[in-house]
Amino acid sequence: MSLMTLLQQAHHGQGLSQLANQFGMNETQAKQLSELLAPTIGQAAKEKAESGGMQDLLSSLHGEQQRSYFEDASQAAAPTGQAQGMAFLETLMGGHQAPKEIASEAAERTGIDLTTVMQFLPALAAMLQGGLQKEMPDNTIENLMGRFSGADDSGGIMGMVGGFLGGGNDDGQGPDLGQLSRLLDADGDGSPMNDILRKVMR
After folding, report:
1. How many of the other CB atoms lie within 10 Å of CB of 99?
2. 130/150 Cα distance (integer angstroms)
3. At residue 168, does pLDDT exceed 60?
4. 127, 61, 124: which is closest to 91 by C-alpha?
5. What is the pTM of this model?
């Protein structure tokens, strides 16, 4: 299952259309933006993990209250939801400038007003964050964080990250992030925004 498939399940299957309504777009525009942005967010999460930021990634998914952004699009679109989503993006991309540049590129590619995209992007990120949290409850995340924090610097962390990116370690020595890794791997590599992402991520 890809991140787009996950989004299509949000708000009882109405998440993207509800986000579109919140920002004065039609459903086609919301889908067009989502197909650009969702795999870009997934790729940013993968690159965050690969660069040693697995703890930060897991920490950002901790907190079951985030599920409300997945279950109710109006909460994702509200100021608190947008702030949550922007914080998630900044964690993944290394600051506030990268999400702005991603939004600018998406606006240029779709012809949708930049101001609208700048509101839609963090709301979409919050919705995705809530969906990923739903796939990985807090007790699972806490267990994984404990195992990552216990890994040594001689290769333990990177071995676990390798297991994460591959869907789990075959030898059973590292944590298997299962559904999360499959979600992030499913469509990120094919994102047309990847070149921009690599330029702006720090």
Report:
1. 25
2. 27
3. no
4. 61
5. 0.79
